[in-house]
Amino acid sequence: MKFLSSFILFLLVVGKLFAQDFIVKNNDEVIRGTIKGTDYFSVFISANDEADVILPAKDVKNFFWNGNSYVSKGFANKRDFEYRFVKVIEMGTVNLYSFGGETLVPIQKEKKVKFRPSIGIGTGIGGYGGMGMGGGISIGGGRNTAPERAAGAPVVRYFIEKPGAGPLQEIPIKAITEDGRKAEVKTILLQKLGDKPELKSKVEANTDLNSRDVIELVKAYNETKK
């Protein structure tokens, strides 16, 4: 009985350890603690036994927050190249990511923050190099430390990639995909998944192509590659 109690306690401790937020930096250093928020250009963590830290996406490989994984990806922005975080929706032979939709947490511990960039996110349209979010959001460095949010829910944008078969590409899906974008979505999916006849048939037969449909199609494709 004593052994069983000790074993249960061990499982609880290990489970708590693995559920903890953490960040992996480019040098493979791991920072554990409580992540307070992200604007997809930087991530704010209250590190264990350390000062609060804000890390830009260019210095981070990935992080784990609220049960979700985020990776840093490079995006071309005119002549510049910048890094932004994307949430991992599905990963395998074909990867599916999302950008946007998170709730930002205002910085409260002003005195201990090691790095405080002032970041503005403007309205952006377009594909691979024109990703943006509506509204102006600042993290630290300004007169008003609370983030300003645009009216309505933040827009969630989706990106798909098949490593070795082209760059990261925006796929214009939504909870209910617009009719005018379905042909484009179908073309992209056939490019990524069309080498599997059964998946190709499912893509061609799908008339909705909503975000949930696309996620299931990508998952099914990755299952065939295991």
**What is the mean pLDDT?**
76
Q: Helix segment count? A: 4
> What is the 3D form?
elongated
Q: Uncertain segments of ≥5 residues (pLDDT<50)?
A: 1-17, 106-111, 116-153
End-to-end span in angstroms?
41 Å
**DSSP strand tally:** 10
Largest beta sheet: strand ordering: 4-3-2-1-5-6-7-8-9-10
Query: What portion of the residues fall into strands of 2 or more residues?
Result: 25-35%
Q: Percent helix among the residues?
A: 10-25%
If you compute it from the alpha carbons, what radius of gyration comes out, rounded to the nearest whole angstrom? Answer: 20 Å
Q: What is the N-to-C order of secondary-structure elements (H for helix, E for strand)?
A: HEEEEEEEEEEHHH
Query: SS-based structural class?
Result: alpha+beta
| Biggest pleated sheet | 10 strands, antiparallel
Protein name: DUF5666 domain-containing protein
Signal peptide: 1-19
Keywords: Signal
How would you characterize the overall build of this protein?
23% of the residues lie in helices and 29% in strands. By secondary structure, the chain is α+β, with helices and mostly antiparallel strands. A 10-stranded antiparallel beta sheet has the order 4-3-2-1-5-6-7-8-9-10. The longest helix has 18 residues, at 2-19. It is elongated and about 55 Å long. 24% of the residues are buried. Residues 1-19 form the signal peptide. This is DUF5666 domain-containing protein. It comes from Pedobacter fastidiosus. Keywords: Signal.
